[in-house]
């Protein structure tokens, strides 16, 4: 399953870091952050609950980039 | 500028003014330190806070950390002015970057601003009401006023008008529509009031699909973008460790081995210069921005690119392979000659059209079109369709046989061979040969220029693959000056041919296949890059191809390649420029020639130039 979320982040490098952090989150199969359109596309692993996973993704992203926001 | 940016701008101004005033106040010692802390903290408090948070989160190598260390270091060494100025310029750079990126984001979305915001429907009391296009169901009637965009695909049920399709195709050729015509969402209604019965939901309509495609395009990352992400990951830590080494090793060596004073201050200052240069932002921002702008500019010209990676491949294309029908020719068969023997031309055509009137074959359609008059089917009896041969029927009581040479042989009618190229339809009346009609596919208006344009931009070879007979194929190839032609191919054979071309080319040369997208899906996906043309409204083409040309003008192939080349050139310019300047500044910094000001240029200046250069990729209409 794939879902797209709107995000807010200030710099391109930070967007890359968010992508890395999201990819490493449990339950996420793949994640792509598009800095130009300010969107994050997350592909979830089978059986994972997007809501719970996205909370973790947000938490992990906040660790690498304090200033970021994901609109869930 | 948004609120956040305005606030930063205020801080920049305050801090800048403070710095100038401090320049004229003759103080020293702690008071000087305290006074300089005002502009420093005004401009840098958020960076310091972020750096602290980064350390707590074990994320040390981010740019905030670098700036914090560099400026605090400078201040500890007593260079209050430099420390504050570095922070100030860093913020100016960041502000500019965020402004430029935001602006180009808006520019590009304006280019793609074809999303309709509302749809008009007539409510129960007969008044026109605006509703969310998502709420419209299939089959509902919507009203499109002059000047409005058609929100959803459908069929005109009332009214007639001229449509501007430029938002979809990049061409501003107006199109006339009237009752019964299909209309595509995204077109602008120029003059008449239309009532349209929708045939799709909003989400499935052309305009939504196109927007979706373009918006997601930059998610498919190109090799250059991946290279930069990887580069950034190693670059920053590498520079940081080098900075530490630069601060420690030379002084230690001086003291221990050379017995000269350590000169700690000098070396630490050089290390700090290193840190300022180390931010990879210019690269990390400018590369995706170039691709994004390139894709945006291309879509404005009616060329949809489904990913940055495809733009990269397209720029390396050296072989272009075409389908014939529908790509180079119009795919519309027309009667191009009537060679009669015993009866008048018109009559020959009339008999042929009548006899074929029950057939749905494109050939019979072209006969009927050339005949041009209403067909009275009462005159036709006993229609017998012989598959692969033609039709036998009774027209006005006469036995008419219309078909190819095989039919004539079967009926033992002697016929004359035609010397012109095309499909030949022979006709016999009551067992006697009456003549033949030549039907051929028309060449697209720009087909020849398109091939010439491809040659001009350095395409090594143009190849045409077609299922059509060799005489027709060869003639078309000769007329268009296509280098190589393979004819009488079944769809499977086309894939084999592509495989062969892929095997025989050089490693870095890429092969593009251009087809009209409906029956060429396997070939489109097998080639390095699949280009579907004339895709307006064809879902299959949008699915199968990597690049979609919205209208069916073959000249757009060369244009698409030119756009991709410009974009890739800008990407490489930025990569070489940014990395080059940074490396030079690093070396200069290490040997002590470059001071903090050069370092700031290496960081902020390079980024500003790279961003401005990236935005150039947006302007492609004159290519």
Radius of gyration of chain A: 11 Å
The domain count of chain A comes to: 1
Shape of chain B: elongated
CATH architecture of the largest domain in chain B: 3-Layer(aba) Sandwich
The largest sheet of chain B, given as strand count, sense and whether it forms a barrel, is: 7 strands, mixed
| CA radius of gyration of chain B | 35 Å
Structure annotation, total helices of chain B: 20
- Helix percent of chain A reads 25-40%
> Strand share of the residues of chain A?
25-35%
Give the helix level of chain B as a range of percent: 40-55%
Topology-level CATH name of the largest domain in chain B: Rossmann fold
Q: What average pLDDT do the residues of chain B reach?
A: 84
Low-confidence stretches of chain A: none
CATH superfamily of the largest domain in chain B: HAD superfamily/HAD-like
Tally of discrete structural domains of chain B: 4
CATH topology of chain A: Alpha-Beta Plaits
What's the CATH C level of the largest domain in chain B? Alpha Beta
Order of adjacent strands in the largest pleated sheet of chain A: 2-3-1-4
Instruction: Specify the oligomeric state.
Output: heterodimer
How would you describe what is shown here?
The complex is a heterodimer of chains A (72) and B (623). Chain A has 72 residues and is an alpha+beta fold. In chain A, 39% of the residues lie in helices and 32% in strands. In chain A, α1 crosses α2 (50-64). The two termini of chain A are 16 Å apart. Chain B has 623 residues and is an alpha+beta fold. Helices cover 51% and strands 19% of the residues of chain B. Chain B contains 20 helices and 22 strands. Chain B has a 7-stranded mixed β-sheet, with helices on both faces. In chain B, α3 (63-76) runs antiparallel to α4 and α4 (80-111) runs parallel beside α9. The interface between A and B is medium-sized, with 20 and 27 residues.
Summarize this entry quickly.
With 72 residues, chain A is of the alpha+beta class.
